What we know:
Elements: H1 2-16, H2 20-36, H3 42-62
Amino acid sequence: MLDARQALLNKGLRALTPLPAFEDVLDQRVAAALRRLGFPDAVELARMREQITDLQQRLEALGPAPKGRDRR
């Protein structure tokens, strides 16, 4: 009885697990929708992260802002 119950439970869990093909289609659709909305893709995001890191390093190399300047 327990073996049959476990077999049904395992079969049910497999049925709830998304199929890889479905996940691929979903990923493609989400990526296409994000592109239409103007969101950058993974390559662009990686490039932007590199640029931000570079700019942060340049700012740190400049040192702190001089005191006494009008900072609005």
